Amino acid sequence: MEELDKLPIRDAAIRLTMMPRDTNAHGTVFGGVILSYIDVAGGVEAVRHTKHERFVTVAMKEVLFHEPVFIGDLVSFYARTLRVGRTSITIHVDVEAERFGNKGEKVRVTEAEVTFVAINEHREKVQIGGE
Questions:
Q1: Residue ranges making up the domain that contains 105
Q2: Which tens digit of pLDDT belongs to each residue from 77-100?
Q3: Is 16 helix (H, G, I), strand (E, B) or coil?
Q4: Cα(79)–Cα(77) distance, integer angstroms
Q5: Residue 130 domain-assigned (yes or no)
């Protein structure tokens, strides 16, 4: 377990509490549920960073599940921009869970790198960066 309480305060792209509908037969949250929220958090960061409003996900790589997520955990998705290309942006998302009923214990549960491409209303690639 890491000392996440000592990290500086960060602005989460999204934060939510996991509910029973999100869990598998083992009582842990489906990895696919976490992946979908990673996608959303990455999209939030892409818009924040570029001020462009329309992106599509083209790749999700280096997804690492470190710890399970449980019902009632408050899960925060922190996103930061790694690089901006001519039409794409790559975002790293760190996922932390504040354990329910465990006096604020925070653990890193997942991380991933997501690449998005900027598009227009006709679903055509558009330029966002100078590379």
A1: 4-118
A2: 999 999 999 999 999 999 999 998
A3: strand
A4: 6
A5: no
Domain count along the chain? 1
66 occurs within a structural domain: yes
Residue 23 three-state SS: strand
Token duo for residue 130: 């100078």
Would residue 83 count as lying in a domain? yes
Measured at the CA of 21, the angle between CA 18 and CA 24, to 5 degrees, comes to 90
Establish if 125 belongs to a structural domain. no
Rounded distance between C-alpha atoms, residue 62 and residue 74, angstroms: 23
| C-alpha–C-alpha distance, residues 97 and 77, integer Å | 9
Instruction: Please state the pTM of the whole predicted model.
Output: 0.88
Which pLDDT band holds residue 104 (cuts at 50, 70, 90)?
A: confident
Question: What is the arithmetic mean of pLDDT over 18-28?
Answer: 92
Residue 3 has pLDDT above 90, yes or no: no
Specify the CATH number for the domain of residue 111.
Answer: 3.10.129.10
Q: Return the pLDDT at 1.
A: 46
